[in-house]
Amino acid sequence: MATKVLDGNSLFNFVVLEGNGVKGMVDLGLSKVPEQYVQPPQERIDKQKAASHDNPPIDLSKLDGPDHDLVVEEIVRAAKALGFFQVVNHGVPLKLLDSLKDAAHTFFGQSPEEKKAAHLKGPSSPLVKYGTSFVPEKEKALEWKDYLSMTYTNDVEALQYWPNPCKEVALQYLKTSTKLVKRLIQILITELGVTPDESKVEGLMGLKFVNMNFYPTCPSPELTVGVGRHSDMGTITVLLQDGIGGLYVKLEEDLDGNQADQWMEIPPIPGALVINIGDTLQILSNGRYRSAEHRVCASSTQSRVSIPIFTIPKPTEKIGPLSQLVEKDGVAHYREFMFQDYMDNFFANAHEGKKSLDFASINSP
Ligand SMILES: O=C(O)CCC(=O)C(=O)O
Ligand SMILES: [Fe+2]
Hints:
The protein has twelve helices and 15 strands.
């Protein structure tokens, strides 16, 4: 039935333009993945080939004790090697993590009309976006994901314009994680041998979004992607995933610096948050830190939710490699640009691994 109602353009209209999302399509009853969602073989996720990322989560409470230096070392090592790590004792209350996952299920469980009503609310610029896939108009195959994106301006507007089922918990999540994000940025800059000045750190944390991702059950997840290969554009992403699994990160080099190209699953750890280095930190560090290429596979049995907070620079912030590092390296691997331009380019293209960085890369001979 679903395939009869939804073929060709009518599927795109129903899912994307009319705002029913992947969830609306799955709710019609779907036994087969529609062809618009079938990825080319090289983009499909082979779970059997992925390794598991068994590194224990980093205990951030130890930053305040005798093991401070060891913990800093662990953070820096992870930011250089994989660009991904998990943290516990992060300062975000554990009960809040459960409430956030519940709120995401409540939001996406609403009728399409209710979800659409959340869209584009705000005083002047839109603070809330409800959508599906990433840039559907540009994608060869669509992503098996619906999302809600909430931009933070201030508390009053968040409580006024963010959707009811999520606004309070999302705001608390944002507030309780800000200290964590700031501390990580300060550590990562300091470890580059540069004293982080307050205005620089504030500039790198100028804008924040809380997103809620919903990956409905998929009849054949091995043919689709929940999110295609990409790195996040900002400074740091804090990500809450539920217990279902399906988040994969690419390890580009092994410990000996050889090309590895191995995908690793980031296993769900109850109470932990995933930290993900964005393109901005790779650029700022002149390539010392690595933004993580990652992707998501949906599940055939359960809907998955994840709740990232993207901390990105102020749109007017000038971003480029830190001058002290360029001096030391004798070469800048990235040019300087205004972050708004990086963001516009990021959202103008479908996910394609770390291609987003080409916008800033200087290809030295
Ligand atoms: O769902 C996830 O675990 C990751 C989502 C993600 O990569 C993103 O929203 O940028
Ligand atoms: Fe991401």
